[in-house]
Design brief:
The chain is of the alpha+beta class. The protein has a single domain, classed as 3-Layer(aba) Sandwich (Glutaredoxin), CATH 3.40.30. Helices cover 36% and strands 14% of the residues. The chain contains 5 helices and 4 strands. The two termini are 23 Å apart. Bound molecules: glutathione. Glutathione binds at residues 14-15, 50-51, 70-73, 87-88.
């Protein structure tokens, strides 16, 4: 994984759509103007095959390494400290805090007092 890559495990029409939608919004705003805007490595899974094996048998080991519950979304950010997360709303806030550089969509940075190192 390149150091600036984000990773998202996603199944269409599930909660993983929340962070995926936000990533695309941020990409639309920042891809051309910010050279440090990260690429997304999207792992798109299908619910039918995902559930087939039961007890995580059909779930990729790399997904289970991020989320032992085997649910999506599962997210990783390889920039700086290696961050892994698996709650859609937490990932959503993380993306806004770290990659909505100009607070175009929300101003989480000033409201919660966090910066990129928090
Ligand atoms: N509270 C979690 C819910 C995660 C969740 O339940 N994900 C479902 C899809 S919406 C899932 O992965 N289901 C497949 C399974 O449990 O095997 C979040 O919002 O991220």
């Amino acid at each position: 994984m390149a150091s600036s890559d984000l990773v998202l495990y996603h199944i269409p029409k599930t909660r993983s759509t929340r962070p995926l939608w936000l990533y695309y919004e941020l990409e639309d705003i920042y891809l051309r103007s910010r050279s440090d805007f990260p690429k997304l490595r999207l792992h798109k899974l299908e619910m039918s095959s995902f559930r087939g094996g039961g007890d995580g048998a059909d779930k990729p080991e790399s997904l289970l390494a991020i989320n032992p519950n085997g649910k999506v979304p599962a997210f990783a950010d390889g920039s700086g400290d290696d961050v892994t997360m698996f709650e859609s709303c937490a990932i959503f806030c993380y993306l806004l805090r770290h990659y909505d550089f100009d607070s175009a969509l929300a101003d989480l940075k000033s409201k919660v007092g966090h910066d990129k190192n928090d």
